[in-house]
Amino acid sequence: MSKDIRIRKGFNLNLEGEANKILVDTHPSKTYALKPDDFFFSTPKLLVKEGEKVQKGSPLFFSKQNPRIHFVSPVGGEVTAIVRGAKRKILEVVITQDDAQGSVHHDIPSLESINQEQVKEVLLKAGAWPFITQRPYGTIAQPEDTPKAIFVSAFSTAPLDVDYDFLLKNNKAEFQKGIDVLAKIAEVTLTADANFKGFFEKVANANIVGIKGEHPAGNVGVQIHHINPINAGDRVWVVNPEDVANIGMLFSTGEFSAQRTVAVVGSSVKNPQYYKTTIGASIHSLLQGAEINDAKPNRYINGDVLTGVATAVDSYLGYYNNLFSVIPEGNHFRMFGWLPFVDNKIPSMSKTSLSWIFGKRKAIVDTNLNGEERALVVTGEMEKVFPMDIYPMQLIKACMIEDVERMEVLGIYEVVPQDFAMIDYSSTSKLEAQEIIRKGVELMIKEEG
Amino acid sequence: MNFLRKSLDNIKKPFGKGEKYERFAPAINAFDTFLFVPNHTTHKGAHIRDAVDLKRTMVTVIIALLPALIYGIYNTGYQYFIQTGEAFTFLDAFIHGSWKILPMIAVSYIVGLTIEFIFAIYRGHEVNEGYLVTGLLIPMIMPVDIPLWMVAISVAFAVLIAKEAFGGTGMNILNPALTARAFAFFAYPTYMSGNKVWVSEASNIDAISGETILGSLAAGNNVSYSFFEMFQGAIPGSIAETSTLWVAVGAFILIFTGVGSWRIIVGGIGGAAIMGFLFNLWGANALMSFDWMNHLVVGGFAFGIVFMATDPVSAAQTNQGKWIYGILVGIFCILIRVFNPAYPEGVMLAILLMNVFAPTIDHYVVEGNIKRRKKRWAAAQLKTA
Question: Is the pTM of this model over 0.95?
């Protein structure tokens, strides 16, 4: 057992609308969709046409960057729409469910005798490969690489984030199996809340590390930085806890598993709780049980309120997120709202607001920018929410001027845009740090080829 | 509120996108956002944002400045009346000070904000709030009898040369308010130094000497004030710099709200104390043997280190760098006071000097971080090899 790690910088946002620990099935979704935009820096090449029948686990498209990586259908049915955007970019591949189509079955060698290459081969063939992402850059892992470690973070600190111990309560065996499979590729480090490790404490075949700290201590990149930092040329792979269970199920049943347990959270949700559904399910099906307070316009977010993707209510669940947030839009004016010590109901890290007095109270937040974008004036505030030995402002500026060499030495390999979410949040100048880092990372990938 | 909002939206119509006066939108927006935090919502990045913004930050600095300003207004009147020997009340002193100082503040804001608005329209960005602080700081660090036209020219020089020439708010190397003072100091020395400028109307009345404490020390005279008089601030000097007590109240506000860097303030006081103490040990002349504690409460040191050195744009930007920067400001301030009798007050030049070196300090701090990372890479490669 490793020692617990304490991450000292960060800030927990205490928001209204946390999910109750109740797990129910969602209303059935008629249609499902994969959205290529969910896969960072991966261009889809279609394998199906509209009207084609597909089985659960049949490939829908593959990645142009690496044709070995296939993206498979989460359900059996018929491809009913391929939604394209500007420049014919593929936005959604929509499948209308029809269980009569059945699912693709794979022969799985026994776990005792299987080697690393065979594990990779099964994951690739079955379409479970996209569950594995890599650091640096946060793209889908390259099967040709050998990672120095695989990280699974079961510690979540993002606002209203899920409790993985509860979320996986019915999948403990599958989770262990998934860890066993991944351990064939590289050493697995499993992180959990140091104060309550839950069933993760007893997981075998993994190096279990307890983490203490406030957001973004739950970000796997922050944990990697403190446990096994990435150097130039290193690869560390990352898998979400539920996808570990999905991989476990694949190796038990021989069929692609697309289980997704989603907590619907936020102050606009009347029944914030956990819903068992499938990757790519329609948001309508998810929200039917949750009941949304839609007297005023809401923002629907695939993911948490800091890093998620704003989504239309008639769209589909994202590929990776266990969280779906609904909060009110903030399209309103606040008279003299710029005066210090007014509007203290808005949670603030800054002591120019009295909100710290009400730290225990759950806040209702909306999407108002609470100010306007300005030149960078205040210094030192980014460091307070950036628990890595990296100078965030200097790295952001290097990304802004597209100085690749500078980005490299300042630590771009260790970060993904999500690690800068709290900087977005707390910035006095309303800086779009995640956006800047995303562009920086894209530039790095292009430069490295 | 709704009625006001609607009328404002009506007024703003001709300044909208594609409308006739679109390019003047930054000007009207500056007034609008002064009344209302706008209805802008997040479009990319985090969906929720902190309540803090630059307006709030800058207004906090202004609040922190007010105690020193109000005391400065009173002290202006107080110095005037004890010089003439008339009997006076608190109100008399305050009114005399207001007559002197409020016009300077008005001139500073009118000239400075006009330039800011013109540049905002010309460059097509919103008006930055930084000048709200700079515009108040400039009169606060001037001698009381400086003519208004000199204030205007100093302001124009500072905003144009120290700030806009470098690209505007957030890009300047030197603190604009100190640049204004340095400009006036070198352009109009007779109005900025000597023993006739620090007390209101002193040159007309020709009564007792209104020399500053550092000025008389530099001239080899003794000081007739006690430590507590100097700390409380009923002494001649630039308008708002004299009271260390009320500057300390401002410092508390800045540090508590996190708007001012405590590292710079603590570092600066530490640096000045150590330097003053070392000179006390040496003690070769009146300035050297001037008690190190007194150094901290006379002249503009306290005001400079709290309100000028902490300007985040011109100070060092890394936390480690802020320590080094603060300590060096303190050291250089005392060094200039003691070794250069032509400039009895060292804090202005010390801060401007360190403004210039702040990027160098940051450079070495960041290089240290880069070296650490490279070492780690090298160690990892050695392990695998």
Answer: no
